[in-house]
Specification:
mainly alpha; about 240 residues
């Protein structure tokens, strides 16, 4: 009896119902289950670093103004316009050409040159006004000293009247007027030493009054009758 099993016998078939062959069935290798990769930790999306102001624009500067230059820094114009002077002052016409030449050499714009003019004018004004202010302060200090003087302060009205009488007593109205103007112009009218000295001199020339002259007294004999108008007109009349 053959070793070959009958085709219809259970031994001749595989569990799946297929016929067995004489060939050695290929051994199937079950694939080992692949190990699932370990889950990776999710990273948050990177936040882009904002550019620093030096990378694009200056701090506080918008994009459209990047690298823009102010109009006043554009350099010297072909011809400078008239510069503004401080109120109450004016520039000397002969000095302006030299100043404008200097501004062009420095490549100053109109606005830049005006700033330099303003600075120079302010400094010059302060220098010019300093002596005048010092002089006015001194005159005010003199006046304060006179009013507080124990000899003059309590009788200023009398002092002014005596001095005025002495000046008017010169008998020259023009000289008296010019002398008073000189006292105001120089400030001598407020100087304590000048007032004391002039008051003493004025007292000397205005003390007392001259006696007014009149007609001589009539000389007549005792018990003589009064002289008539005719005798007054003709003294030799008998």
């Amino acid at each position: 009896m053959s070793d070959t099993h009958l085709a219809n016998s259970p031994e001749a078939r595989l569990p799946s119902g297929e016929l067995k062959t004489n060939a050695t069935p290929a051994t199937t290798i079950e694939e080992a289950p692949t190990e699932a990769p370990a889950p990776t930790e999710a990273k948050p999306p990177a936040t882009p670093t904002p550019p620093t102001p030096s990378d694009t624009t200056k701090q506080g500067e918008t994009l459209l103004n990047e690298k823009a230059k102010p109009a006043e820094l554009t350099g010297a114009p072909e011809k400078y316009a008239d510069f503004k002077a401080p109120e109450g002052y004016e520039f000397r016409a002969e000095t302006m050409p030299g100043a404008q030449t200097l501004f062009k050499e420095l490549n100053l714009s109109q606005a830049g040159a005006q700033r330099l003019v303003d600075f120079h004018a302010a400094e010059l004004k302060a220098v010019m006004e300093a002596p005048a202010k010092q002089w006015e302060d001194m005159r005010a200090k003199w006046l304060e000293e006179v009013r507080g003087d124990p000899e003059l302060g309590g009788k200023l009205d009398q002092v002014k009247t005596t001095v005025a009488r002495a000046i008017d007593g010169l008998g020259d109205q023009k000289l008296a007027r010019e002398f008073r103007q000189a006292m105001d112009f120089t400030g001598a009218g407020n100087n304590p030493a000048f007032i004391r000295a002039f008051y003493k001199l004025a007292q000397k020339v205005t003390e007392g009054h001259a006696v007014t002259g009149g007609s001589p007294s009539e000389v007549k004999a005792p018990n003589a009758p009064p002289r008539t108008v005719a005798h007054a007109l003709y003294p030799n009349l008998k």
